[in-house]
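Fold Annotation — chain and its backbone
Next Lines — sequence and tokenised fold

***
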Amino acid sequence: MIGFALLGLTFGSLEFVLDKGQEDDWFGSKIITFFVVMMVIAFVTMIWWELKELREGRRPILNLTLFWGEEFSRSALG
């Protein structure tokens, strides 16, 4: 449940920044800067949480072990 909340917070903040950034002069706006900082913190916390869930033998929301495979990593980045 926490992983899902962090995922929603990360992508919700990203969507807000991309949607309102040009209207509010990107980093000239305090609200845009706030959401960027919140997005980065939520993203880092989500990665940490998902790796912790994986180490404890639980099923994470986002299976980060997929990125350990070379073919998947190249296709996701390319």
The chain is about 70% helix and 0% strand. The helical segments are 2-20, 30-55, 70-77. The chain has a mean pLDDT of 89.
